[in-house]
Specification:
44% strand; single chain; mainly beta
């Protein structure tokens, strides 16, 4: 069974840094594009970062996180999101996602949630002083 599992979410102060992880079981992540989304209470789920399959490793970011967040492939089965200079508005549940039949999702960004067919359960990131 293919699963995505996020981890690493915790409470941090504004201006702080945090790294969260997306670990996959059941497939080799190198052949798939992986995206991070986030959803704050009362808001729509927002696509914030994407990394292409390992053939080119292209990345894409939303304007809200560009220059502060970095998506990377850590291991064959793990993608992480390094978040720096965190703001109060970054507080949300963070989800990783992929599409098992389209490895070129990052070529056009941002994407909608409907473009992805496999999701993790999310990890909570809290930003407060």
């Amino acid at each position: 069974q293919v699963q995505l599992v996020e981890s690493g979410g915790e409470s941090v102060q504004p201006g702080g840094s945090l790294r969260i992880y997306c670990e996959v079981s059941g497939l080799n992540l190198n052949g798939y594009a992986i995206a991070w989304f986030r959803q704050a209470p009362g808001k729509e789920r927002e696509g914030i970062a994407c990394i292409s399959d390992s053939s080119d490793g292209r990345t894409a970011y939303s304007d809200s996180v560009k220059g502060r967040f970095t998506i990377s492939r850590d291991y064959v089965n793990m993608v992480s999101l390094q978040m720096n200079s965190l703001k109060l508005d970054d507080a949300a549940v963070y989800y990783c996602a992929t599409n098992l039949w389209d490895s070129r999702l990052c070529d056009r960004w941002p994407r909608l949630t409907g473009d992805f067919n496999l999701w993790g359960q999310g990890t909570q990131v809290t930003v407060s002083s």
